[in-house]
Amino acid sequence: MATSLLTPATSSRAAAPARDLPLHLTAVVLGATSILIGIVWDISWHRTIGRDTFWTPAHMAVYFGGTLAGLSCGARVLWDSFGPGAATAQNEGVRVWRFFTGPIGGWICIWGALAMLTSAPFDDWWHNAYGLDVEILSPPHVVLLIGIAGILVGAQTMAAAAQNRDGSSSTFANVFLFSTGVLASMAAIAITEYTFVQRQHSSLFYIVCGGVFPAILVAGAHASRLRWPATITALIYMLVMAGQVWILPLFPGSPKLGPIGHTVTQMVPLTFPILLVAPGLAIDLILHRTANMNRWLVSLAIGVAFVASLAIAQWPFASLQATEIGRNAFFGGGHGDYQNVAEWLVGPREFWNDDGSLGGTLIRMATYAVLAATLSARLGLARGKFLKRVVR
Amino acid sequence: MKLKRLTTLLALTAIWLTGSGHVGNPLVVQEGNAGPYGLRVLVRPPGVIPGLVEVIVRSTSPNTVPASLSVRTAFWRFGLKGAPPADTMRAVPGEAGSFATQVWIMESGSYAFHVTAAGPAGNGTFVVPVTSVATTASTLPPWLGWLLAALGVFLVLGLLSIVGAAARESTVAPGTQPALPERRRARRAMSVAACVVAAMLFGGWKWWGAVDSDYRRGLDKPLVVESSVTAGDARALTLRVTDESWTYVDPKEPGVRKQSGTPLIPDHGKLLHLFLVEAGARGAVAHVHPLRTDLSTFTTPVTGIPAGKYWLFAEAVRESGYTVSMADTVDVPAGSSAPNTDGDDAWTAAPALATGAPAALADGGRMTIAIDGTPVVRRDVTIRARITNADGSAAVLEPWLGMAGHAMVVRTDGQVFMHLHPMGTGSMAAQERLMRREAGDTVNHGEAQPTMAPMPGHDMAAMRATSGLVATNGNVAFPVAFPSAGSYRVFVQVRRPGHAVETAAIDVTVPAESAKP
Question: Is A111 within 8 Å of B162 when comparing Cβ atoms?
Fold first, then answer.
């Protein structure tokens, strides 16, 4: 299954040689992965231990990723601009501010690293002014997340350019999809507060997912040379997030901040992934059949299919996870932040619904969520078109 | 006229935007015993929550200094069971017997800081009540504002350049130059990107503004009250708590207003301690204890102080140990009244004297107030009073409101007010409550715990014995820390057997210097 999924759609199996990754592409993909691991680790750290310093290993993984991507691309730009092969390189890169040349993905990575740097003094002041924030989304964290997104998007763009320049390479095609999967995972983490199991029977969950995921899945799928790219991207996200649910609790950890609501002895993971593979499959099937159709119509089809397939898969899956079964080690629903009182972490979970009624939920899903997913898909198609053509 | 009203309003707002428990002073100084060790604990809250609190402990028993000290922060609702592991304190270099550490507080509300001392003489724990509230509204320092603006401009220009470069060159085959259509596409892309960035910056700016105003709304301030004093022979003060947080309507019983939070408990036998300080802290002061007539109303006779404009400060303690404060200004008309019959109210119009100058008391006795050393902002000092009888002998100070003496400290602009006891700034009722809470750990909020169970390491009897109930040597001392520089007036009140409560005052100037541990 995996082999066929990873087989390029536009070239035969025999003509899919593996290529060595260029050093800077290796560096940015490694950096992006390190950031993703660091962010998952850091959130787990805050749910388990609470107290941190600049020097926690989770922070180190994020800084390492940002620094690796930013510096390697910076070095590449300097080399391309002023190195011995600058004359040739200048015809193969893109020029920014007249004197500097480099791959477009590299430029985006550099910008992302600088945005991450900028968020540091802002976040530090924010904590001093308003207290240590215990939420993922605050203005300085959004600057950090935009910076991280820059590095992930830069890595994805660089991988796309490599794939497009060397159409016969399965390595580049796989690296491109891997970088898309990392991007999807990070996006999922950014919207964690809207995707708790308890929210999965409310329209807000579908609106937020609809606004975020199609843009990433469709862009990757449109530009990929593989047959089932959106499905694979969704699977990468699910594997990453399920993996952390299974792996993190294997390590000991206990709170160093209070008040402590229940006894915590293992690292607390993030939530179990949503079944994104269903809308991923739907996106792939639609894209297989709509190559020459009007892009807005394709987007609308994807918008409807995304919300419908996510609802069909996730609604009953959420019902299952809301039962006692969802508390087991496989789904990880028995874990909670150290502040949570023990009673919150046992027994069935109640759904939070701001829609008033099931009818209200369905109407909002059919309107707002579909609209969000359609616009997101349209954005994804536009970015996918760019990713398909980028060569520098 | 309008301008004057606005100025008055701003001045009042300035008075109200102040600290917790004690108006304008978030610092806690508390003395007591941890087993065999005499300790003074200084707590410096950060002003934001969650945040890092500085805790400094000094030994007050030179012959019995603990070898090691640690602090655990127990939030009222969870108690020690939900407290994080203790933070070990380190010795302060150059200050024998002083220890310091930083601990995190994550919630607003009532905390018990359990300070545990250990050494050759044994182990013991001392509980310090800390009311945790956000008090500080920060603004971006100019240098950081410029730095962030510069970085922001650089990032925006960089982003637009990268978007333009991407649209112009990134899809052009290597070795080929971009043509006019690509250049046009780049300009379009940059325009769209500029609009998106502008919208995001605007959205971010609005978001930041919303967070900031939410935060400022949540800052601790004295409860909103309305106070008035009637004139004539039965001059009386009525205080109505109008703050919307004071009561709530239970959805199950519409129309019935109930007290929010945990109930008020008597502190030193009184539900409310109310102070009237002549505006400008010029001398007249009353320390009275209004009776509660309904959920939100307190009344008391007012006598012994001249007519004029007064600053009103009031304090009460909740069952959780949380200290609430109220502040207002009130016009006191001419008149007098029979005082409350319990004899616990006190008033004076005495002018302040220089530090160390003896104030004459009723029968020729004297009270001399002084401060140990030079007061430093945010550092603990001791206010000492020596009271002698007419014959020069040391006065016996009998318990008044459960203490050998009370002190009030008011900054002469009215923005800081503290009510002190020999044990420190904290409320004894809060301390007792927080110790009971651990004894009855099974009750969620600690309500309805009828008796005190003994608690290992927490010696309540010792606490009572050493916390300044009575003084036979004519000396009474108050540990305190001044939160800010400025001019303060310090009032000390004591009661000798056979006398009414007697008050003397001194003026203290706190220089603008940064505090050391």
Answer: yes
